[in-house]
Amino acid sequence: xxxxxxxxxxxxxxxxxxxxxxxxxxxxxxxxxxxxxxxxxxxxxxxxxxxxxxxxxxx
Length: 59
What we know:
Blueprint: H1 2-16, H2 26-35
């Protein structure tokens, strides 16, 4: 049972780490999002408070 669980975890990690090409065309991105089955991941380049930034971090 432990071996099966390990295989499942490794398969999931491999699947989750697979890069997906980004959509450079904004219109195509909106169409893909509206069709479903897609997500948009947004990250702030600079967040106030320095939470999670290494010491000496500078933008």
